[in-house]
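Class I SAM-dependent methyltransferase
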Amino acid sequence: MEDLAKLYQIRFSDEARDKKDAVWKVLCESYFQQFITPSSTVLEIACGYGEFIRHIAASDKIAIDLNPDSEEYLPEDIQFHLGSATDLSMLDDNSVDACFSSNFFEHLPSKEVMDEVLAEALRVLRPGGVYVAMQPNLRCEPGKYWDYYDHVLPLTDRSCQEAFFKAGFDVTKVVARFIPFSTDSKLPQHPLLVKLYVNLPLVWPLLGGQFVIVGRKPAKV
């Protein structure tokens, strides 16, 4: 856990975190909120510095991460748990309306571990609940994907969709190309330009390097 904290301290300066946070505010308000009702209980898996969970509108917010530094960046109304996404034992079955993760699966050591993460997410979700994930797409950025020391598991939009199906989710949406590979790449940084980009889906196939997948827990599992 200390190694993870050190790696992210190196990778993200205070200025970089602030810029990333501003981008995420727009992404939440202009795109991801459509999948989550404001009355929901939301769990962010591998929350990092909390860019998503801070800005999404929800009644109850829960976050989990292996990085001990994460908690200090979260408001007090967010329930934080330090630990692995393969063990959500602090949460009851069928207790969460939505799960979210971003740029997470590629850090997992194996497909077997990803299966465990998806199984735990499915367990805690209520029937009809959704798991929304955004991921770098190896199919779109085969070189840049490996530029990060902690990227381990190779995934495309298609292989991730198979993983969700295998875990028992109904996949209701896949966007193969959404935003660029990283928030410090081609994506405009000014909030107004980010909002403009998000509202111009015809541009996504030209610049997008990350995919979005939405899996829904069936009414009966």
